[in-house]
Amino acid sequence: MKLAASTLDALGNEVGVPTYDRTAVTPGIVHFGVGGFHRAHQAMYLDRLMGDGKALDWGIVGVGVLPQDRRMADVMSAQDCLYTLVVKHPDGTLEPRVIGSIVDYLFAPDDPNAVLARMVDPATRIVSLTITEGGYHVNQVTGELDASDPSLAADLEPGATPGSAFGFIVEALARRRAAGVPPFTVMSCDNIPGNGHVARKMLSSFARLKDPEIAAFLETEVRFPNCMVDRITPVTTDADREALAERFGVEDGWPVVCEPFTQWVLEDDFGLGRPSYEDVGVQIVEDVEPYELMKLRLLNASHQALCYLGYLAGYRYAHEVCQDKLFVDFLLGYMDNEGTPTLPPVPGVDLDRYKHQLIERFANPEVRDTLARLCAESSDRIPKWLLPVVREQLAADREIKRSVLVVASWARYAEGTDEQGDPIEVVDRLRDKLVERAQHNTDDPLVFVSDPDLFGDLASDERFVTQYKAALKSLHEIGARATLEAL
Predict the structure, then answer these.
(1) Which pTM was predicted?
(2) Domains (range + CATH), the chain
(3) Distance (Å, rounded) from C-alpha 308 to C-alpha 372?
(4) Which residues form the Mannitol dehydrogenase N-terminal domain (predicted)?
(5) Which parts of 300-429 are beta strand (E)?
(6) What is the CA radius of gyration of the chain?
(7) How far is CA 403 from the centre of its chain?
(8) Residue 432 banded pLDDT, cuts 50, 70, 90
């Protein structure tokens, strides 16, 4: 059965479907970056609310600005913006549910004015973002806007039609201001420390280059709540599509698969109201930072700790790595001795239980999260998630050996061949620069970490350098597994 509004009633009882009248749902949120995570997380929470008869005026209009978003536009159009969210339990149970909270999808390159019209509409009260860590154009060392990206440069031309998320947001705010419409709230849902603060800073820097008056308006009038988001959502595979069709009779062009666990911690800072997210399990708090640091430095940094070493050792999935006691001991050692000492108290959280729960989540064999996914875009991840731990531990004269080994394993992975001599497909916006540097690792062991744009001045820290060189040498001479055993 092809998934569409007209076929919902014909789906079997094993598939959950919207119990609310989707024709009664009106848009209230414009979302940039409709990928797997958004559909497994924010859209899912809203669907739950709508199932309780609430938030029917908070429907989501998705927006794609990148060329590769055309495929999502085609699938959404063919399926009336419906999709199946499949929760994969560790025992092999699949729990499919059709999500109906997205009511429209706009492919910006085809009709940028339609996107602007929707954003300027007074009904739009929130513009949310899952545009990846790199989508905020932050220079990793200075923390300032890197305006060199071609999409930003094009949007800064006088009279330019927007092409980037930043361009659309600033132009829409300018038009709302001119029309006397109060500004929407910008809600970042990306894995960045202080994501609301970062969104405010980068957008205001961009606006200052384009129109200082709008920049001043953005800085004083627009709300940017911080939040922490968590749900492991691997890339959808053809096998996932086939399983949904064969076991449940649903033909879905782009279903989403995810783990059972989900968490959203959100700061209550909205200018024009918000859905009652707390009614469906979202934690509304005054200060997100402790939860955010917990997640970034334990979960996200642990993903980096397992992915390069695991890949070099011959594994290809996260669950394979986390069913290996050697790797589990390494991950818990990192979390206990290096990640946790950098964290402030986290209200209401048992950190020891949280860390062991992370290992259980990573070890879920049904999720089949690929190491290749976790190894991608490292230049946007390691500087934000792991290097702050290294710096804090160095400043306090505490242990850094596991964190340093992770950095060395990234450098070894970026060489582009594994321990069997097979090619590695390095996926990173800085791929060419990273690979070129990494291929000189043997003759200049500090070449990789001497990039100030990624590592700042770490290459001049004697303690870091000594341990890094030893770790990289070990990876080259005896390989990842033996290096872990020695550690």
Answers:
(1) 0.90
(2) 5-285 (3.40.50.720), 289-486 (1.10.1040.10)
(3) 9
(4) 28-276
(5) none
(6) 23
(7) 21
(8) very high
